[in-house]
Amino acid sequence: MNMMFMLGIMATVYFASLVLLCFYHGKMNPKLINLAFIIADIVFFFSWNYAEFERGALGDGWMTLDNISPLVCTLIPLTLLMSDKVKSYLYPMIAFLSVGMFVAMLLSPEEAYLVSFKLEANLLYTSEAACHMICSLFGIYLILSGQVEASFKNLAKSLIAVYSLIGTGVVLNYVFHRSYFGMDPYGTSKIYMIDIFGSHIATLTAYILGVFLVLAIGMQAMGILKRVVDKLDQSVGEAATESASEAVTEKINEENDN
Question: How far apart are CA 36 and CA 172, in angstroms?
């Protein structure tokens, strides 16, 4: 399958799902929809790991701490085991990363899908794009279903969550000579496999600032989306009320005529 064709399918599924979420989020059972996203995440994330294993790139085991995307893919199923207190920090992080996940679906750092006209979309590229799509849609659903509010308080919680996880990875890098999140203090530190700054401290600082910007932009985008959908719900509700009122009035007039 050509890469552009695969992306076209992913984008079609993404926007069709987004429309359904916007129009029917109020009629969906959050527990069932959350579970559906978790199951989809498990299937596609397993496929992504298997594809990496097949090509011999899974040297450090499961990809969880390789970058933000596999981290989120790992955390989504684990939310089933977490307390509400822990989820109150992780859910905002997942929700506000939605925009970044959508961009990553189209422009994977692996092979910049959107400009890879000659590449074939194998299991690796397809499952990776699908994982980003699921993560993005799940984050959007958390906002639309009211499980997460687009607020500065939740932005702070998302930053605490993501920096705690990145910080843990960085400490492990120093202790065990790893390169989690691409931050290798004893080798070359990279942002999405690209050595931009040539310095571990400079790269780590840029990475931290980049995560902050992605979350801040995501919070603003999710807030705008929620307001638009709320206005849509209000308009639909007013139209339904007006229609019902007209029906009642018409029935009363018919009874009076009789």
Answer: 33
Which residues contact residue 81 at a Cβ distance below 8 angstroms, ignoring those fewer than 6 apart? none
Q: At what angle do helices 200-257 and 3-24 cross, to 10 degrees?
A: 50
SS3 content of the chain, % helix, strand, coil (to 5): 75, 0, 20
Rounded CA-CA distance 48/44 in Å is 6
Please give the C-alpha separations between residue 144 and each of 70, 120, 124, 219, in angstroms, as whole numbers: 24, 35, 30, 13
How does pLDDT run across 188-238, given as a tens digit for each residue?
898 877 788 888 999 999 999 999 999 999 999 999 999 999 988 787 665
Q: What is the pLDDT of residue 196?
A: 81
The single residue listed with the structure tokens 């984050």 is: 139
- Our measurement of the distance from residue 145's CA atom to the centroid of its chain's CA atoms, rounded to an integer in Å, reads 15
pTM above 0.85, yes or no: yes
- As a whole number of angstroms, the distance between CA 128 and CA 51 comes to 9
Closest CA to 121 of 134, 133, 108: 108
The Cα–Cα gap between 144 and 177 comes to: 42
Contacts of 165 (CB under 8 A, 6+ apart): 71
Residues above pLDDT 70, as percent of the chain: 86
For 107-149, the pLDDT digits (tens) are: 876 655 656 666 777 888 899 999 999 999 999 999 999 999 9
Alpha-carbon distances, residue 76 vs 35, 124, 239 (angstroms): 10, 20, 37
Alpha helices per DSSP H over 62-122: 68-78, 84-96, 98-106
